[in-house]
Amino acid sequence: MPEPSKDAPSQPFEAMPPEARLDMPVQNLRTPANMEGRGRTPATSPSSIVLRRLSVIGSALALTAYGAWRTHMVMDEAGVSALGVIMLVLFIALFMWIALAFTSSVAGFCSLVAHGGLGLGIRRTGPLPELTRRTALLLPTYNEPPHRVIAGLRAIYSSLEETGQLDSFDLFILSDTTNPDVWVKEEAAFLALREQVGGHGRIFYRRRHNNVERKAGNVGEWVRRFGGAYDHMVTLDADSVMSGQTLVRMADAMERNPGVGLIQTLPVIVGGTTLFARLQQFAGRVYGPIIAYGIAWWHGAEGNYWGHNAIIRTRAFASQAGLPHVPGKPPFGGHILSHDFVEAALMRRGGWAIHMIPALDGSYEESPPSLTDVAIRDRRWCQGNLQHVKVLPTKGLHWVSRMHMVVGIGAYVTSPLWLVFLLTGILISLQAHFQRPEYFGDTKLLYPHWPHVDPVQAKYVFIGTMVVLLAPKLLAYIALLLDPQMRRGAGGPIRAALSVLVETLIGGLIAPIAMLIQTSGVISILSGHDSGWNTQRRDDGGIPFMEVARQYARFTLFGLVLGAGAWVVSPSLFFWMTPVLLGLVFSIPLVAFTSSRSVGLGFRRSGLLLVPEETEEPDVLLKLEQAEAQDQTPTLPDDALRALRADPVLCQAHLAMLPAERHAGDPINADQLVGLVKLEEASTLSEAERRLSVKEKAAVLGSRKGVALILRLPES
């Protein structure tokens, strides 16, 4: 085996720029933040923000009060029962949730048709502004397919190059990858990207060898080491793509508004191939703007952060967003999982404005391909959002920031509440079926009191609830009809209407399954189980049918038991619950059907569930497709040990990117010690591959001594 240095380039290899350290103190949640001279109300806050919030929140409260009164009228007038009180309390909590979504959507519809959703001097079209400050694009990755990650970066780089302002941007791949084979592929893909686009000195790569605190720790480590050289940073996900024009306009807005700490775009879901992904893609593209315009309208300068596709003022982030560990053990204690909400809240606490700009297009992401993949991701998000219970008492938070966290918690707590509401309704029907009614009670009356549930009032409550629940979709469809480009992109008014109907019907069948998944997640977290850190799958979503049957059999069984119980109580109750029961009983074929790529592409060929990004594909997405099709990464063995032996230049770069060797007194890496012993005792490379565990393999690849031992081993 030749030594790697023989074919290595003569100039020294630099994977990262010189360090520019920036202090990022850990915040104290028990004391107010240092405002650093900034006022409580940002200069970019709309002058009518108080009226906006009163109209949205006040209308939601009024709707909830009216719905509660109507529900009370439905209940038996003979007296108050425990189950009746529980039913009413649950109805108020759940109706408030959908009422706020409704009033916010109405505001969003008005803002959308009035061509709002911008602000901060941002324009969607026209000449690009000239930038004077530097911006870093940060792409954290964790065991993701390197080919897709690099293709996205290449598309962004090419799009930035066309703006003529590439010199204002540097790109960083921040790896937390633990799979050693993926790690070495990342390095090979990084080197190939640099060579392809001439990105030396502008495209950088760093892998953390101790990936503490997950994504928040990954970004925080970059801020502390390199943040001092950049005025702004754009956070990306592994599946993020943003156009160069969008990035330039965002950076210009930060330069012209020194009090703004963060600008969040509205990422559009693209690239869906399975039916489930296409449903998510259509819903996000058609209904998403109504919701986003609404919350941007009444959130004002107290917006939220979704963790990616946003630009952040680096020094504002460093001074305010150093996350502490919350007391206790996981799942509620430890480092903060859903860091983005908390980082935005802490920055706003420090006086920085947080804005969402939903009208600025050119920001894209992908959707998980199946309900199973969403459930895996949702389990982690559920834990992170419930953990915010311990962050809510933080001193000095703006009340809207607290509301973001309450809404995030409610997104998961409402699922078990819906389930309890459903079961309570069955129990009330069961009680009425078996309990003997009291016609006179303790008071002597001339006429008996007939206990009853008013069917007319019940019908009105049901119709009203459905109107509030489905109105945002109707408003989104009307907005689509009023936008010629959107109308054409969705296949025309008739196909768009059919798509809304298909999405509503299939989404309604999936909803009870998702309710049980989230309920089981909440119960698991409350019982003390940590979510871990799982890699998100981004392929076509194909899952063997027997695996689907194994995972969803319990939902089918629950649906059968629930249906049998409803039938025993009352056939009318059974038919009333049919929409819920159908989704549960047929959960196995439903999940298999929606996870199918062929079914999803069949809907696309029929012109259903179309989005404008498919019919008129944006330039940056065309660049992404081209980059994926023209992968120029050298073909190497899948095994990391053999890949380093096969490519001397890659091996030399790998060695150059390794951290400094351990010194006496440094923490001991047990996996590395055991792995080195196994390498020394192995007589061949094949034997070493068999004996090393995944963690030991990654550990020895992080040691120069380990790489040297690998290079010296004979093949057989």
UniProtKB/TrEMBL annotation:
Q: Biological process GO terms, please?
A: glucan biosynthetic process
User: Could you name the domain of life of the organism this protein comes from?
Assistant: Bacteria
Q: Name one GO cellular component term.
A: plasma membrane
Name the Gene Ontology molecular function terms of this record.
hexosyltransferase activity
| Sequence ranges assigned to domain Glycosyltransferase 2-like in this UniProt record | 234-428
Pathway(s) per entry: Glycan metabolism; osmoregulated periplasmic glucan (OPG) biosynthesis
Identify the Pfam families for this entry: Glyco_trans_2_3
Q: Indicate the transmembrane segments per the record.
A: 50-69, 81-114, 405-430, 460-482, 494-517, 573-595
Q: Which Gene3D superfamilies match?
A: Spore Coat Polysaccharide Biosynthesis Protein SpsA, Chain A
Presence of keyword Transmembrane? yes
Main localization of the protein? membrane
Could you say which EC number(s) this protein's record lists?
2.4.1.-
This molecule's function is given as:
Involved in the biosynthesis of osmoregulated periplasmic glucans (OPGs).
Q: Please report which protein family the annotation says this sequence is part of.
A: Belongs to the glycosyltransferase 2 family. OpgH subfamily.
Which PANTHER family has this protein been placed in? CELLULOSE SYNTHASE CATALYTIC SUBUNIT A [UDP-FORMING] (PTHR43867), GLUCANS BIOSYNTHESIS GLUCOSYLTRANSFERASE H (PTHR43867:SF5)
Q: What is the protein name stated in its UniProt record?
A: Glucans biosynthesis glucosyltransferase H
Q: Which organism is it from?
A: Acetobacter okinawensis
